[in-house]
Queue: 2 jobs
Job 1
Amino acid sequence: MTITIKEPAIFGENILLPNLRHLRAVEAVGRHNSIGKAAQELRLSQPAVTQAVAKVEAALDRVLFERHQKGTALTRAGEVYLNRVRRFLDQCDAALLSATGGGPIRARYLTSAQIRSLIAISASTTFSQAAHVSGISTSSLHRTLRDLEAMLDERVYTSSPYGLRMTDAGASLARRLALALREMDAALDEIGSLDGVESGKILIGALPMSGAYLIGAAIARLTERFPKARVVVTNAPYAILFNSLRNGAIDMIFGVLRRPDWDMEVAEIPLFTDPYCIVARSGHPLAAQAEVTRSDLLRHDWIAPGQGTPRRREYDALFEEQDKHPNMLIETSSLSTIRAILACSNRLALVSRHEIEMDEQLNLLTVLPWNPSFPPAHKGISIRTNWLPTPIQTQFVNILKESALALEQEPRSL
């Protein structure tokens, strides 16, 4: 079991990519059930295709095809791997078609080095940094990108006084190729699961005030059931995680559902509702009152939610018709920071009800008796519309849904 909490990652990093010509050979053999027909289609000799397949099998330490006199047949590992290879190649072809209009003819000549170089340069400001990320020397990186630009007949980056800058075409192509690359990462996890030991990984983006107890409990249940599972949790604001999701650096976002209307690549799965409430430290003067009025709220300083967040909209609506507004010298979306400030002051804060239940049980924070109640926040997970989860990822989503359902059915005092 490995659980990591970290900052947002560079999309496409640390994913091994086999030679694309070898992958196309595997796909062709799997589609034709014949090395000879695959060789004819790819305009290669049969020994060359056989060698390409053998190199992929050696890298995976798996047999993908069973050879017979009448042709070849996919093994179970071959079926799993071929499904991901096809998704990967289809996405690469579509990415190049979108970038140039050249279609699959140009995509046939795309190399793994070009993909790694483009992704690395898109996440860097200098060639030396990109060379370090990609594991390619600086001179090879220059040459590889020049070849890619010649193939595309399009610039993918420009130099500026502030460092390297991606062109629109280069940035779009890098993002789509990085998404395609996730398929090859998933392929390794799925093949590993064939041995009966789920050891894949899940990359989760967690929003502030997302419901740490629920996500933590779901991770604990998953890792108890599958001790070899690896979970990586990235904590960041929505804008950063949204880009990370679209770039393929994470598999899902957990928290308030707030997808922008213009986006068509992200889907949302509602899991539970979480009302907002006003909280203060245990023993706060307002905690002893049977009812708290807006005048009471105005007499105290507040910790304001971050700009642009759903909580901030509710906070602003609370005082929008008032001539006077509370002092708002502190602004944060960090629950740990809010908790620490409330504990040693008489400030107030607007938070998610579920997020502070543990603080209530420990008698650290108290919910003030405020009516009318706030509209609830709708929380769940955001995923890519074309995401095909691995078995371990499917297990986690199911556990998360079960946990959320149990939470919704619990009686809750407000």
Job 2
Amino acid sequence: MGTSSDQQKGNNIFQSRKRYNILKNSETKVIQYLCSIMPSWITSDILTIIGFAGSVTVALGMFMAKSDKLWLLLSILGFAIQWFGDSLDGRLAYYRNTPRKWYGWAIDISVDWISIIIIGFGVYDYFYQQEFVALIFVCMYGWSMINALLRYKITDQYVIDSNAMGPTELRIIICIFILGEYLESGTLWYFALLGSILLVIFNIKDLLDIIKAGHTRDEEEKAAKALQK
């Protein structure tokens, strides 16, 4: 049986954001367990560096895979490392009740964007004759980040999931297709193309929802000002 203190720490882990992804419950339990066994010398900043190193590893695997597809397996390992660092850096701070909300948020957004650019270069290099797919994918991912920031500004809710899909589900799907690419060339290209199309659809839907929320907030603020007069 866990103590009330442990339970409170577990409740604190995701208090800064709402999650809607399919693996939410399972992922929460895993992250809570990992936070509970993390050595004291491991800090959130160290975990951010580990996550960033995972992104570099993904790109390195893509670069090297042009000469030998076996290197694609390194990219899968890179995504696992990235998940570990990226998923635990902020959560560990909340678990230890030492969050730096705005510092962490700024670092998280910046590192995420730099990471997707680095991974994008790796994919771009791998698709050396069809680079436009990698370019579109990176642009659409960047758009999804902008949507998340807009939603946070308008609704005060920081949401990193798109419908039932979150970063973890996306990493798993990408890894499946990377494995498919290792077994059959061309698999990853079709995924990148399909993924880009889906991101366009999801981004447009999210943007329309955000604009609607913005209109609602404008009306609420107008009504509040009218009552004050």
